[in-house]
Amino acid sequence: MDKMKKENDSEIEIDLIEILMIIKHNIISVIVVGIIFATVAFLFTELAINPVYESTTTLYVINRQDEGTTTMTDLQSATQLTSDYMILVKSRTVMEEVISELKLKSTADELANSITVSNPTNSRILQIVVKDGDQYKAKEIADKVAEVSAKNICSIMQIEEVTIMDPGNIPLQPVAPRPMINTLVSGVLGMIIVMVFVIVKV
Fold it and tell me: What is the pLDDT of residue 48?
């Protein structure tokens, strides 16, 4: 049994050495193809894919039951209703009003799909993230969504006030695409393809 195991280990070691030698003899091809893949991916990312920017705004929702004061009941009530608020932000009523006021060409569904609403750590805060190909338009839409949402939450849920904590920011860098990551992944993929090809060919 030990003898057979040693023979198997020896065969595996020889196979690995042979594979490494094959790759070594074809290293120039491996590198060249990797560079070609990386270059094509970089050019495609830069020239063919439109950048996407994100602008973020936040709302703070408190439902005061006693005028002038905020009780523990108010805080618990607001937390429990957060899911309702998140749905209202992306509702057709809000989307259509935003589209109308900003004269957008997108439909209500398209606009809703470009918006993400979250509730960080189960707080009374709603975080609204808007994606758009134009960084200034992303901010404009984020601000308008926050404004219209705040008004509708107050009206529909009969809440005294919704505060816009942070207006939308003007994003400096796009969140997608990511040229460097695409370039690196494509380069490595190209080299792997060549290595597999030369090993199988032999």
Answer: 85
Q: Which two tokens stand for residue 61?
A: 């929702």
Q: Residue 168: what pLDDT?
A: 96
Which residue in 104, 92, 174, 167 sits closest to 133, CA to CA?
Answer: 174
Distance CA 157, CA 48 (A): 45
pLDDT in tens, 74-104: 555 555 677 788 899 999 999 999 999 999 9
Band the pLDDT of 3: cuts 50, 70, 90.
very low
Helix-helix angle 135-156:82-89, to 10 degrees: 130
Burial of 4 per CB tally in 10 Å (0-12, 13-18, 19+): exposed
163: three-class secondary structure by DSSP:
strand
Instruction: Give the count of beta carbons closer than 10 Å to the beta carbon of residue 63.
Output: 22
Nearest C-alpha neighbor of 116 from the set 175, 75, 64: 175
Q: Residue-wise over 22-42: b if at least 16 C-beta within 10 A, else e?
A: ebeebeeebeebbeebbeebb
Residue whose C-alpha is closest to residue 58's, from 162, 200, 188: 162
Supply 18's token pair.
Answer: 């042979």
Q: What are phi and psi of 106, to 5 degrees?
A: -80, 160
pTM to 2 decimals? 0.70
The pLDDT tens digits for 166-195 are 999 999 999 988 888 999 999 999 999 999
Give the number of other CB atoms < 10 A from CB of residue 122: 9
